[in-house]
Amino acid sequence: MHTIPRITVEVPVLSIGSGPSDYEGLGSYVRALRRPRGLHMTLLHLGVLDDFSHDVSEWTKGITSADAAVHSTLTWLDGLPVLEGFAGSAERLVPLGGGNVTGLEVDVPEHVRKYQVFLVQALHELLDGLLVDNVDDFILSSRALGFRSPHWLPHVAVGSPRTRNAGTREIQPLTIEFGESRIRNRQMLPGAGQ
User: Fold this and answer.
1) pLDDT tens, 33-73?
2) At what angle do helices 110-129 and 66-79 cross, to 10 degrees?
3) In the Cβ-directed half-sphere of 149, how many Cα atoms lie within 13 Å?
4) Domain 7-188 has what CATH class?
5) Burial group, residue 179, by CB count within 10 angstroms (0-12, 13-18, 19+)
6) CA-CA distance, 16 to 23, in Å (whole number)?
7) Is residue 134 within 8 Å of 7, Cβ to Cβ?
8) Cα atoms in the Cβ-side hemisphere of radius 13 Å centred on 50
9) Contacts of 39 (CB under 8 A, 6+ apart)
10) Rounded Cα distance, 49 and 27, in Å
11) Residue 156 phi, psi (nearest 5)
């Protein structure tokens, strides 16, 4: 079965702690620890591009077509500035996604929080340009965006909890190095590489 890629603005994890054993040590708290290579922190989730564009078209009652929404969104994604790499730290594991996922709660520098706020403001501007009214309502109700909370919790999902209702766990502090921001699955979008 072919899965349709989700689009996010994210930063890749380059390293956790002082070596592989620091990350592997989280296995005592987490079942099915994710491979370090694919770890990332999401800054903004857009969802599946076709779903997002159809949400816009439905919301505007066809005033903005799905095709127009796709084109504008691709242009918008290409125009986003890149956030340079940075270091964060984690001192606890937190439940995510209703408790089905465990993540490292990450303390990030202030400029990273400001960049994430900028992304949300930029999303508002994109939606305004697409003639979406009541933008906040759209963001919270769009199936594609999937926003469940107005607050951003910087985190790196690392696996599943060993026990149900595991809650928050304090851990030894870990330094996390992140690379520069990127558009996840950009190469799979229309017009990529042109």
Assistant:
1) 999 888 999 999 999 999 999 999 999 999 999 999 999 99
2) 150
3) 7
4) alpha beta
5) middle
6) 6
7) no
8) 6
9) 12, 13, 16, 156, 157, 158
10) 34
11) -125, 115
The number of helix segments (H) and strand segments (E) in the chain equals 5, 8
Q: Which residues contact 143 (CB under 8 A, 6 or more apart)?
A: 47, 51, 55
What are the two backbone dihedrals, phi and then psi, of residue 13, each rounded to the nearest 5 degrees? -85, 125
Q: Mind listing the pLDDT tens digit for each residue in 87-108?
A: 999 999 998 877 788 999 999 9
**Cβ contact 112:96 at 8 Å:** no
In one-letter notation, the amino acid at residue 166 is A
Q: Going along the chain, which residue ranges are E strands?
A: 7-16, 30-31, 40-47, 86-96, 101-107, 155-161, 169-178, 182-183
Predicted structure pTM score: 0.88
Tell me if 95 sits within 8 A of 168, measured CB to CB.
Answer: yes
Pairing mode, strands 182-183 and 155-161: unpaired
CA distance 166 to 95: 7
Residue type, 146: G
List pLDDT tens digits, range 149-159.
Answer: 667 889 999 99
